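Async update (no meeting this week)

Hi team, since we skipped the sync, here's where things stand on the single-chain job. The sequence we agreed to prioritize is pasted below, unchanged from the tracker. I ran it this morning and attached the output directly underneath so nobody has to dig for it. Comments welcome in thread, and please keep replies under the output.
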Amino acid sequence: MSRNYKFHNPTAPYFVSFAVIDWLDIFTRNEYKDILLDCLRYCQKNKGMEIYAWCIMTNHVHLVFRSMEDQPPELLLGDFKRFTSNAVVKAIKENQRESRKEFLLEKFGVAADKSSNVKHNQFWRHDNRPIQLWSNKVISQKIRYIHDNPVEEGYVFRPEDYKYSSAIDYSGEKGLLEGVVLASI
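Output:
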């Protein structure tokens, strides 16, 4: 991994993107997206994660966040990914309506077999591609990129119409997740 994609400053805001292994479309079901939202809320309330922007797509997540407490951002993100990995895989196993259950569990198991640090099911890819955000201009660019993602994919015509994103918060309405709306955007 390139030196550019590491967490260097523990108090800086970061843009991160992380994807499900093999870019599998897991988050087509709202119940799986809701697990991510619950965990983000937990991280905000109990782990000092300050979230400026977010978007859950079908196979990846974008965040602009920073760690407000002593926990380094890479550990905070690692905890989030570890917990959500276990919770989503468990939900898939227990979901009687999940027609892709065997296929998905096999994919997670094969990916775990290829990984040196995962025992049973690897859900997330290991790369996060953190980019430290050093100016208001760069922060604005990344937030616009995040919010435009569902538009680019053809899910909605306007960013604020996508339910699983912070774009609605930036349009003056209330979204699904409490966050810090930056005035300069």
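Quick observations from my side:
The longest strand covers residues 49-56.
Residues 73-94 form the longest helix (22 residues).
Reply here if anything looks off.
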